[in-house]
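Example: NAD kinase.
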Amino acid sequence: MHTALRSILIVTKSGHREAEALGERMRAWLAARGLSARVVENTGDAVSLAVAGQECSLALVLGGDGTILGVARRLLGSGVPLLGVNLGKVGFLAEVAATRWESSLERLLSGGVTVQERLALSFRVERDGATVHSGGAVNDVVINRGILARVINLDLRVGSERLGELRADGLIVSTPTGATGYSVSARGPLVHPQLHVYTVTPICPFLNNLLPLVLPGEARLSVTVRDRTNEVYLTQDGQEGYALQAGDVVHVERAPGGMLFATIEELSYYRKLKAKGFIKDQA
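Written out as structure tokens, the predicted fold is:
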């Protein structure tokens, strides 16, 4: 879908002078063309970011994939589309190269913004019948072991149906957006970002008793921690962690509203896979 630009929120990587300077140049460039723009630093405060984004029609995020992930997670359900400007190394989530930002914004102003709705995940940790922790994820929800090199025991259910017990280093529940992250390193599948599915991929499973699964977006996954001797942690997007206990049940499902990514279609998904080395053409 397309959306008209009214005002723009520019979010810069925390403590990054290049991002701050570029943000100010963008603000001045947009103001000269009659658009309202505000520059804020990504401090990690979800409330202040949500308030800043209430009246904007687009969020420009200046940084690497980590910065884009953090901002996208805090904007879940806000209805504000996000467009990444790459100042990092990989930049798979970024649509715009920092060296070509002016021409990219010109395209935005001339044609409007094309917005893609992508699946995101919500999760909650149930302990003794009560919810003790909850949150959302743009890339993945990971359950894994602590510092000791031991497998952990997890029990998996999809809806009311039990899949079985998994003995592994951990488990990755990934969105299509996160399929090119931790999941693919664990031999999870590449998934087109516009598909409304999510994947379940074991990390080094003992005896390979569970292959990667692709679940429909409507499915609800429940993971029970059976391990009583090892440290087990839940992490969201590789950025925020939470210690789990034996008997905890992690419920994962599709987040309402999902997340919105703006695109100017400079590089198709398949060309991006090739450019980032996920597909190698031998011809």
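The radius of gyration is 20 Å.
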